[in-house]
Amino acid sequence: MSTSTATREMPDIYHKAGSLSSERRWALWTAYISLIFAAIIFLAPPVYMFITSLKTSAEVANLTGSPWLVREPTLENYAAILGNPTFLVFFWNSVKITVCVVLITMVISTLAAFALARMRFWGSQALATGVFLTYLIPETLLFIPLYQIVGGLGLLNSSWGLVVVYPTLTVPFCTWIMIGYFASIPKELDEAALIDGASWSQMLLKIFIPVAMPGIIAATIFAFTVSWAAFVYPTAFVTTPDEMPLTIGVVSQLVRADTFAWGQIMAGALLAALPPVIVYAFLMDYYIAGLTAGATKG
Amino acid sequence: MAEVSVRKVVKAYEGNVQAVKGIDLEIADHEFVVLVGPSGCGKSTTLRMIAGLEEITSGEIAIGGTVVNDIPPRDRDIAMVFQNYALYPHMSVYENMAFGLTLRKFAKEEIAKRVNNAARILDIEALLQRKPKALSGGQRQRVAMGRAIVRDPKVFLFDEPLSNLDAKLRVQMRTEIKKVHQRVRTTTVYVTHDQVEAMTLADRVVVMNHGIIEQVGPPQELYHSPKTRFVAGFIGSPAMNFFPAQVENGSGALRVILPNGVALPVPTDRTARYQAMAGREVIFGIRPEHLTEPKNLDRDNIAVFEVTPEVIEPMGMETLVHFWMQGAEICARIDPTTPAEPGRPMQLAADLNHMHLIDVQSGRVL
After folding, report:
1. What pLDDT sits at residue A298?
2. Helix-, strand-, coil-residue percentages of chain B, each rounded to 5
3. Looking at the keywords, is RNA-binding present (chain A) (predicted)?
4. Residue of chain B whose alpha carbon sits nearest to that of A192
């Protein structure tokens, strides 16, 4: 390259450097526009649910005017649903199932992840991959064979049947998350604990679980969400209202013959969505705090 | 406190890659031994085998007279300090140091006494309630050492403990480690790739290369009487200069002929040692400090020659002069007051009383 072309290119370089702030402005605009767009898409359904839950059945049925406006706001749907003993049974079933599933999942996947991440044994790598692959099998494929199994256990039409079945969804993924988290803990930490005199179980309880708390919380959130929001399995395995969790209870039991009590369904669905929102709001802070504290840095 | 014996220890990995090829090493009670060598020489593996973190393929390791081959790390009564400190991030400094004692079910008062005592030795009393993330690198290293001290183990093992620190702190912590050892006198095995650390800390240095021990000895002995070319080149900074040469028996006196034709007379007290090499190719080695401006010319065995310096490096207390001789870069160490300029020929004197001749085939210093 000759000197003259080199000097002729110089202004271009300066121009690029000078446009940094305008590039940044562009990036910000694009980011904001996409975020606003995404927020509208994700928030429109819950907002519409909330609006509908404040309407009387007559107003829901009235097709004149904008459906996004409430003319005569009422809390009667909430009062009706909270006064409905069946709804409270659904709620209690969901709580019971979810608490059990989260506990079972966390115990199994913490132990499994610790073994797969740290105790090098023959086939541990293949097993770790296998665990993840089982997660990829969709539940819609599994519910027919599982129906046989749950039936064989005599747990059809029982919320305990769901406690047995949900871990097939939660354990593989939670184990996978935790294998990754445990693997990120420096090897020297277990070696130091081994030399300090810890047994494997002490190492898990006193070092790994506290250090991996952000990962464990992430896995807990996942198990909670899957269990709380499960729809296919309860639809297939539970038919008695007394044993139903919220997800199917609200839609199946609040429909009287052909009449949809839309206001009540929406109020019920919103109330059902409340626990996950609370869990997320509370644990996410902890989760992010844990991550930014650099808990695994030696 | 105890001695450590390493007997014919081999470590082989899959595919029969031998990281440690049957080494023997006896470490006395209270001794500070440093394993030093380039990366991959097997020094860390040896340390980890003593700790019980790596299995031994064959051979035997004994601590305090007990063979520990099949004893897990926690029952070997050792303490280890790691390169990345390996502090438990969720525990305070106090809890970090107390962890090993708590697991061993020591009484609370005894734990407090030991932790406070170690904290005083290491000057970290003010940090006891902090978490590791609130500590600087040097402070973390102190805590890691404190964790070792409180246990009052038979042996301290250090795995490159200063490598993560900046140069200034490294020198400071080096002195700190030496002070602690002088105080607690625990048998110590210390691994480093830094030969300065090895020289300054060790009672005895073990130089390793390719899974074998090249030489074991006190720092001064390694420096002045290296047994192999590897040790001669590894110990000392700047490194020893090497050039190919030939031993010649001319007119009754033995001479070393350098590639540029300069003939250096072999000191008479070494004639018998080198006689057998007459007429053969050797490697001539001399340290930079024995290649200086002409001085002490009245002494025997000083050879003066002229060189053209390429690079001059003033270090303050000395000046390094680099020049090329027949394709080999040579470094000389001169007084900072001696005038030297790149490209301007100057006279240098080689003190042949400190020369080394190395057998080309075996790599052994003759």
Report:
1. 36
2. 30, 35, 35
3. no
4. B86
Task: Report the complex ipTM.
Answer: 0.82
Chain A residues whose CB is inside 8 A of the B154 CB are none
DSSP codes, B129-165: TS-GGGS-HHHHHHHHHHHHHHT--SEEEEESTTTTS
A124 CA to chain B: closest CA distance, Å?
Answer: 17
Q: Is the pLDDT of residue A297 over 70?
A: no
* Nearest-neighbour CA in chain A from B129: distance (Å): 17
Q: Is B154 on the interface with A (CB under 8 A)?
A: no
Mean pLDDT for A127-138 is 84
Q: Which residue of A has its CA nearest to B87?
A: A298
Q: Closest partner residue to B82 among A192, A198, A207, by Cβ?
A: A192
- The answer to whether A298 contacts B133, with C-beta atoms less than 8 Å apart, is no
Nearest CA in chain A to B136: A298
Convert B203-233 to b/e letters by CB count within 10 Å (16 or more is b).
ebbbbbbebbbbbbbebeebbeebbbbbbbb
Closest Cβ opposite residue A294 in set B52, B53, B133? B133
Structural domain boundaries of chain A? 3-53, 76-292
Q: How far is CA B309 from CA A53, A289, B347, in A?
A: 90, 59, 10
| Residue B84 forms contact with A (CB below 8 Å) | yes
pLDDT the model gives residue B100: 92
pLDDT class for B1, splitting at 50, 70, 90?
low
Q: Is the peptide bond before B238 cis (omega within 30 degrees of 0)?
A: yes
Q: What is the mean pLDDT of chain B?
A: 88
Record: contact B82-A191, CB cut-off 8 A: yes
Q: Which of A94-108, A157-171, A211-225 has the highest mean pLDDT?
A: A94-108
**The predicted structure's pLDDT at residue A14:** 52
* Inter-chain residue contact A192 with B88, CB threshold 8 Å: yes
Instruction: Provide the token pair at A216.
Output: 């464990």
Q: Minimal Cα–Cα distance from A184 to chain B, Å? A: 13
pLDDT score recorded for residue A262: 84
Sheet holding B346-351, edge to edge: B291-292, B346-351, B302-307
| CA–CA separation, A39 and A36 (whole Å) | 5
Q: Give the CATH superfamily of A76-292.
A: MetI-like (1.10.3720.10)
Are A196 and B100 a contacting pair at CB < 8 A? yes
pLDDT in tens, B89-119: 989 999 999 999 999 999 999 999 999 999 9
Residue with more model confidence, B361 or A255: B361
Top-ranked range on mean pLDDT: pick from A99-108, A266-275, B234-243: A99-108
- Residues whose CB falls within 8 Å of the CB of residue B346, separated by 6 or more in sequence, listed in order: B293, B306, B307, B308, B309, B321, B339, B340
How far the first Cα of chain A sits from its last, in Å, is 51
Residue B210, amino acid:
H
Of residues A3 and B5, more confidently modeled: B5
* Residues in chain B within 8 Å Cβ distance of A296: 89
pLDDT of residue A293: 44
Question: Looking at B28-160, which runs of residues are DSSP E strands?
Answer: 32-36, 58-63, 66-67, 78-81, 155-159
Q: What is the CATH code for B4-234?
A: 3.40.50.300
Q: In terms of CATH, what superfamily is B241-359? A: Nucleic acid-binding proteins (2.40.50.140)
Cβ-Cβ contacts under 8 Å between A and B: the total is 74
Answer yes or no: do A196 and B53 touch at CB < 8 A: no
Residue from B45, B103, B131 to probe the interface with A (highest A Cβ count within 10 Å): B103
Longest Cα–Cα distance of chain A, Å, equals: 87
